[in-house]
Each structure stands twice: as C-alpha cells, then as structure tokens.
C-alpha cells in the first residue's frame, strides 16, 4: 500500500485541457450574425422597393385611367350636348301698313306708298348664348330694291328665341311703275322677295367658339288693294342656311 501511494505522488502533473476552437467558435458566430443582419436588411430594402414600385404603378394606373375617362366624357359632351348647332332664322309674317294709292303723273300714273313691317325670329338651340351683329334685310319687287332695313345687334340666350320687328317705308318710285289703277281697285297679288344676312358667334364655356354666318331668302305673297290700309302676307316661304 505504501508503495502504491508513493507511485501516485511521483507521477507528473497533467496540464489542464484547453477548449478547442471548434467547440466554442466565437468569431464565426459574429460573422454569421452579421451575414444574417445583412440578409435581413437586404430583404427589407427589397420589400420596400417592391412596395414603392407597386404604389407607383397603382398611382400611374389611376392617373391614366382618370385621363382616359375625362377624355371620353369631354368627347361625348362635345359630340352631343356641347355640339354647336345652327341657329334658326325665320320670317314669321310681313305686314303692309298705311297702303295709299293715288293718281300720279304722266310718267307714273299711279302713286303707291306703304310702310312694311317684318316680324323675324331667331332661335338659338345651343347650350350657350349666341351673340349676333347688326343684321341687314333687303326687300325686292320685280328685281328692284324697294327697301332696306337694319336690326340692332343683340344676344340670344341658350335654348331661347328672340323676335325682331323691323319697319321701313317702301320706295314708292320703284313700286309705282309696276302698278296700275285696276289692280289697286280690285286687288292684286304681289310677290316680294327678301334677303337677310346675319353673323354672330357661339361661345361654349369659353373653350369652344364658332363664328356663324346666317343667310335667309324669302318669297312673300301679298294681296294689295287701295280699299284696305293694312295688308298681311298671304304666304311666306323662306330658305335659310348657316355656315
């Protein structure tokens, strides 16, 4: 027993075991942590980029859709509601007042005097007002001008009609050579023609403007007698055009 104890005392001291780097890899853990953090940051940036890209695409799509819808609406309104239509000019009736026939001179055996009153209407079928300049109406009998009358400028509201009464004294010296006393006593139909020119502009919301020139030719039949001082037209046929 003593020999065994002495042997144990004489046995050399063994050094403590040093931990292997493979068991406690401190540097590798830091690298893995950094790599994971970089990967997470990259994934986050990618997610943010995709989100911004998706938002930009959505906003761009909404803007394009809005522009297309507005364009379609404007085009539809321009072709329907806001389309400029031609105003309608009409000669409603013509009246001769103060018809007076009398014996004239040798050159003009019959002298005729009369005042002509014309009732003209202008209809504006547009959604915007129509401003027009001063108009001119010429009256003819057998190709001779027997009277010229002017109507003042004005404005017709949207979908409204304005009436204009114009009055003029007929040029007796141009009517008398074509009238005889028998016609005045028993009554005779006389055909007058007229020409009216009117220009103006339609302004739709200050965006679309159109200048219009309206012309109207009328044939008016009247039965004139010296026994009737006021004569209304028997028939009025008009043809109007706008450009």
Keywords, please?
single chain; 10 strands; ten-stranded antiparallel β-sheet; 243 residues; 30% helix; 4 helices; alpha+beta
Lay out the secondary structure.
Elements: H1 2-10, H2 26-79, E1 88-103, E2 110-124, E3 130-132, E4 135-141, E5 144-151, E6 154-156, E7 160-169, H3 172-175, H4 181-186, E8 188-204, E9 208-224, E10 231-242
Describe this structure in words.
With 243 residues, the chain is an alpha+beta fold. It has helices spanning 2-10, 26-79, 172-175, 181-186, and strands at residues 88-103, 110-124, 130-132, 135-141, 144-151, 154-156, 160-169, 188-204, 208-224, 231-242. It starts with a helix and ends with a strand. The mean pLDDT is 77.
Q: Indicate the structural class.
A: alpha+beta
Would you report the number of β strands? 10
Unreliable runs? none
What pattern of helices and strands is seen along the backbone?
HHEEEEEEEHHEEE
């Amino acid at each position: 027993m003593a020999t065994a104890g002495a042997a144990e005392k004489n046995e050399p001291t063994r050094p403590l075991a040093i931990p292997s780097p493979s068991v406690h890899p401190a540097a590798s853990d830091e690298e893995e942590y950094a790599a994971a953090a970089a990967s997470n940051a990259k994934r986050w940036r990618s997610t943010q980029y995709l989100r911004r890209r998706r938002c930009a695409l959505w906003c761009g799509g909404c803007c394009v859709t809005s522009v297309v819808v507005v364009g379609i609406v404007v085009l539809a309104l321009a072709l329907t509601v806001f389309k400029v239509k031609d105003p309608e000019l009409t000669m409603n009736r013509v009246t001769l007042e103060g018809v007076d026939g009398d014996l004239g001179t040798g050159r003009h055996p019959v002298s005729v005097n009369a005042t002509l009153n014309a009732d003209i209407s202008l209809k504006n079928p547009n959604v915007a007002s129509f401003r027009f300049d001063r108009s001119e109406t010429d009256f003819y009998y057998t190709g001779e001008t027997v009277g010229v009358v002017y109507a003042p400028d004005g404005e017709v509201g949207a979908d409204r009609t304005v009436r204009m009464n114009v009055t003029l004294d007929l040029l007796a010296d141009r009517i008398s050579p074509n009238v005889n006393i028998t016609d005045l006593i028993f009554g005779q139909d006389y055909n007058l023609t007229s020409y009216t020119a009117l220009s103006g502009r339609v302004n739709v919301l200050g965006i679309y403007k159109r200048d219009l020139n309206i012309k109207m030719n009328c044939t008016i039949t009247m039965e004139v007698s010296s026994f009737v001082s006021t004569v209304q037209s028997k028939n009025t046929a008009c043809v109007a055009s706008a450009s």
